[in-house]
Amino acid sequence: MIYLDHNATTPPAPAVVAAMLPVLSGLSSGLWANASSQHGPGQEARRALGAMRTTVARVLGCKPAEVVFTSGATEANHLAVRGLLDAAPPERRRVVFSSVEHAGHLRLARALSDGGVQVDFIPVQSDGTLDVSAAGALMGPDVALVSLMAANNETGVLMPVTEVAALAHAAGAPLHVDATQFIGKQPFAFSTCGADAVSLSAHKLQGPKGVGALLLRQGVPFAPQTLGSQERGRRGGTENLAGIVGLAVALELLDDVSAEAARLAGLRDALECGLARALPTMHVWSRGVPRLPGTSYLRFGQLPAEVVLHRLDRLGVAASSGAACSSGGSEPSHVLTAMGVPAAEALAAVRLSLGRTTTAEEVAYLLHTLPPLLEPLLREEMLTAP
Ligand code: PMP
Questions:
Q1: CATH number at residue 337
Q2: Could you give the number of structural domains in the chain?
Q3: Which atom of ligand 1 is nearest to the CA of 75?
Q4: Distance from CA of residue 8 to its chain's centroid?
C-alpha cells in the first residue's frame, strides 16, 4: 500500500512504539502507576512524566511549565479558546477565528456563537492565503482572543502567525495557534513564534493517537476547563504516560525537519509536474504560495473526488478527498468554499499528503500508473461538457 494521507494521520515510528510498550505493560517497571500516587511506582511514573515534559519543552522551544498535556489537538484547541475567553476581562467578549480553521474548531466557533459570544471570521484570498488587512480590521478593544492555524490541513497554506500575533497583541488580545499540521513539517519554536497558546497532536508526527499538548505562555490569564490537580491545575485527569512518552519520542525524532521538508517538497513538485504534463486539465490549489512541503491539493478536470479515489484505491494508493462526508452526502470543503471555489470544482478535490515514509519510487509508480487510468475519463468528461 502507498500511503499518501499523512495529513490525516501518520504511521507511528517503530522507536515510538518500542518506547511506549514498557509503559503500557508495566511488567518491567512501575511506569503504569498513577503519577499522583505517593508510593514507589507512583514516584517512578512522576519522574518519567517530568522527564518527558522536559524533552517536549526542549524540542518545542518552551519552558517545561508551559506544557499542558492533552488528549490531542481537538482538546487543546477547545481548552485554549475556552480557557482564554473565560479569563478575559468582561468587556472582551468577541473572538476572531480564521475562516479556514479545522472543522472541529469551526464547530467550537458555532457553539460559542450559539452561547452568545460574537465570533468574527478572517477571510482568505482565492489562493488560500489569509487576508491580513481584514484581520487587522477585525481587531479591537472588545476582542478576547484570536485563533489561527499555522498551516491549513487541506491546502497546506502557511498562515502569517507572527503578523497576526502583532495585530492581536496591539489590540491587547492573546493569540492561539493550532500548529497541528505545522509542527514536525517546518522548524518551530514556541519562544519565538509570537503565539500565547499553541496546540499540537502526536499522531500527525509519527506519534500515537489520543495525545497532544497545549503550550501556554507563562503569565497569560487562563481559566482551566477540566478541573483537577494535574498539569498544574490547568487540565485535570490522570496523565496518559504511555502516550506522553510516545509524543516525546516522536518529537525527539524531528532533528532533521529542514532536510525532510526539502526532500518532501522535491517529491511533491515532481508529482505535481509529472501529473500536470500527463493530464493538462489537472489543477493544483495554492501552488504558488508558501505551503507545507508534502501537501498537494488538486482536482482532475471536474472528475468527482470519489471517482479518482476509487482509481487510486485500485492502484493501492490511500489518499483523501476534500469533502466532508455526513450521513451519506458530501459537502464541498469549507476551505475551498472560503477561497471562492465553485461547488462542482470543490467536490473534485483530492488531497495527496506525503510524509516521512514516502519514497521517490512511490511517486514514480503513481506517475506511471494514474494518468492512463484517468485519461479516458477526462476525455469523456470533455466530450460531454455542456
Ligand atoms: N487541527 C488540525 C489542523 C488538524 O489537522 C487536526 C487533525 N485532523 C486536528 C486539529 C485534530 O487533531 P486531533 O486528532 O489530535 O484531535
A1: 3.90.1150.10
A2: 2
A3: 16
A4: 9
